[in-house]
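Quick board copy: two proteins, each given as sequence then tokens.
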Amino acid sequence: MAKSNGDPEAGSWLSRSREKLSRIDLAPQAETQGRVVHVADGIASVSGLPDVRLNELLRFETGQTGLALTLDADGIGTVLLDDAKGIEAGTRVSGLGEVVHVPVGPQLLGRVVDPLGRPLDGGEPIAGESTQPIERPAPAIIDRALVEQPVETGVLVVDALFALGRGQRELIVGDRATGKTSLALDVIVNQKNSDMICVYVAVGQRTTAVERVIEAVRKLGAPERCIFVVASAASPAGLQWIAPAAGMTMAEYFRDRGQHALIVIDDLSKHAATHRELALLNREPPGREAYPGDIFYLHAHLLERAAHLSPELGGGSLSALPIVETDAGNLSAYIPTNLISITDGQIVLDTQLFAANHRPAVDVGLSVSRVGGKTQKPALRDVSGRLRLDYAQFLELEMFTRFGGISDKRVKYRISRGERIRALLTQPRFATLRMIDQVALLAALAEGVMDELPVEVVAGLRAAIARHLDATQPDLVSAISKSGEIEEDDRKKLAKAVRRLVVQLSDESTEPGND
């Protein structure tokens, strides 16, 4: 090295050079790479990468991504999040050092995306406000508030008998083709009248079925306040596996900012089957019905993220309506049993009721909401107090009198009244009712207004009630809708208004030419 020989400028240059060299990191930068040993069925077995962590994202040299699902001494079981095209034995793989993140924010509203936030509706790529990991801890108990505000579904049998609250987790369970998705869709459509943001997550569903759901919301609901997360049956198994967690993260963005959100997961039975498939392909030990034991933790951790936050954290809420499919009505199967124990109640749909054209086909004996009437508006709670008991008694009497004549007048009255209750609770799709309409119908039922009404006219009464009340009792409608409470005088006014409508419908049904 040259000496400065007392030259001050040379010494100054030398000191500056040494300072620059000290700031340069001369340590070699190495990137660890692994190789694909085997790939099939959406799973890639990777060797190497000793520093990879569980659930870390991996990048294949062909451009696809995967998730480190299992870590073994001899390799890594990786679930692919993209198509496996081009990946083969020997393909290089590197770890990204991060977990799966998805975009969140209002930019997602009105869009159809896959579980990674990539658009499926042909629109522009989504640049969310930020990104969040799909796996996030559930709010602690101390961070939660009581579930007291209602989720108004517009479905009379649900709002009157199994009230839902903001922050609640209510399971929708039933056999295939019993109207599970239709019931959840009615709830989403009815939120056009509320401030709730809806997230619909499709897991393993047919593409045509998902398209019908999206089209219905666009036509009848408020699509500008909905997010559709789609991992259809044709999507890679990895995307189907992460879809519920990704949807939860997108919904939590609004909850954490003091807003109210509703998430529908359709359905968790297919999600559980996907988890079983991926786990068994990675040689995880099977448990009951071949499901790995961690499926309970997976679903419990997922649904615990639904909550009503305390006022100190903004008071936002995230309500969950998970759907699960049963086989031959077997509620004691492993996955339905797990989810019933995790959630705050279940709405059970019955195959026989559906076949008898009772829609929605809710089994009032097996269904329950553990939050109960605490979330109901006082007006609705006042008029629906005896409804479930009366209906249950009717169903029991109907069964015993099916094979013989009825002689007792009291039994005849209960049968007659029960038939009208059933007709009132039978509600077509996309014919949701406002809270005031439900209160008026149930108040009229309690006052005996419908006792002499032909059963076949009840459907027309339900369809015409909103227009009739708005035309004849606008002030009363506004007052009860705003306060959520009802006085005895107001209850009688509503019953009289319904009675006038009953007379009008009865006259129309008896006019010549209407036979």
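And the next:
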Amino acid sequence: MTTTPATTDAPASPPATRPGAARVRPARPAKPHGQWKVDGTAPLNPNETWKQADGGLNVRERIEQVYAQGGFASIDKTDLHGRFRWWGLYTQRRPGIPGGKTATLEPHELEDEYFMLRVRIDGGRLTTEQLRVIGEISVEFARGSADLTDRQNIQLHWVRVEDVPEIWRRLEAVGLSTTEACGDVPRVVLGSPLAGIAADELIDPTPTIEEIVERYIGDPSLANLPRKFKSAITGHPSQDVVHEINDIALVGVVHPELGIGYDLWVGGGLSTAPRLGERLGAFVAPEHAVAVWHGVASIFRDYGYRRMRTKARLKFLLADWGTAKFREVLETEYLGFALPDGPAPARAPYQGDHVGVHAQKDGLRYVGVAPIAGRLGGQQLLDLADLLEGFGVTRLRTTPHQKLVVLDVRPDDTETLIAGLDALGLSARPSPFRRNTIACTGIEYCKLAIVETKATAARAVSELEARLVDLVEDGTLDQPIALNINGCPNSCARIQTADIGLKGMMLPNPEGGDPSPGFQVHVGGGLASSDRDEAGLGRTVRGLKVTAEALPAYVERLVRSFAATRDGGETFAQWAHRVEEELLVCAK
């Protein structure tokens, strides 16, 4: 893995086309999109200007040699609000600024002199030694903060720039880094938490993920993309990496003639313009997986839209090109060979969050546990490392569902370990509401947020466990219902793909006075890995909003309405798209 400072700036011109490959150029638009291989590399906005002037990777040396000595006031503003992201650093929100001010204040008015630092965990693979180091850093440098994200990372808060070099030294000593954890780069590569250990795994993606990280993370040739580039690779039948909402995803399949490999998906992404990824219909043999990943990333670099950042994601290029065009460009211009057609993945046979106790292929057990909405703490991480090592366990995984999976548990130790995990607030047998609730960072730390999320999620889980205990105990509620809580419209918590997705906003007070924090409600979304027939975006009902205070009561009424009016084995998503709006606004 590249962890040392890069010294090469972003390329001044796009890389040359592979010799002998056909050039497939889209027609030049009336107004340029800023595509390097169509419009040239002249920057069309300030972001593109500073990225070309000095690549984001180059700021590391200044952090270590200048800013760590001079403190926050010494940081160049372009580095602070731009290049720092290439090393996993964002300024966090200054405490006390209400959500109603988020859209009206400038970044320097919103930000504190502390940072969120994102630890990159490709494939979610951790050892207890690494976990202990993150915990020690949290306790010593981050006020004990630690949040598990839905991208398999761990985020720390309250980090001072003066401490960043020492944090990097400790992380890199155990094989971790923050390199390109943020920024216009290839972000963390999601991987199956069961890679290499599941009895029903089709293919282990670990070698592919490791090669991508080793060759391309920190590589200047991919360090100036139009915007972020998200990847996911799994060989598990539960399709446990939310592949439909990544820029590129490789999903394990069995080809009837060619054997085991991957099905290729591209162009997924949510935020304010959600779009699910699409299959290219191409089968990727394991030995070609890294080349295909690099080809798709290179298409994004060379043809992605750079003029407007609101259009600078791969999903917009795919929408304009279509899958046939995209596959043609990938094969002829970047790979130099045709990919065979391949089958689609089979329907996921069960929920892919891996919570509970399950058998590994070697006879040991893995135990998936649920914190509440990903909220952890540094001391909790240290206690967890101690607990696991006491049972001879040294491996664990993070998941794209804000969960942890403990590996290699001896069968005779399972119940004792589960009791120890419960004592740490990590449940292997959580209620349906604790298991299926995720939340983004929210207004506590995020400069984009409008409402609080983590405490809201914890309160909702607690109240729903009490309010709906009868439906759980009598088996009426016999399926997961995902509750995703997001602090703003950007959908870091995947609100459009949840059974009940909540988008943070300020709601007017009907009796006058200050607005109240609340949510726009989306219902009936889901992904193939969430126990529904196929992925789909949620339904938005005009005017369906709920205050944060009224949220548990609304969800209770909605779930009871579903239980009373569902048709046979109908899923929540099917029901939510079928019924009249009156049933969905039952909290009004």
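Board note added afterward: Residues 97 and 105 are 10 Å apart (CA to CA).
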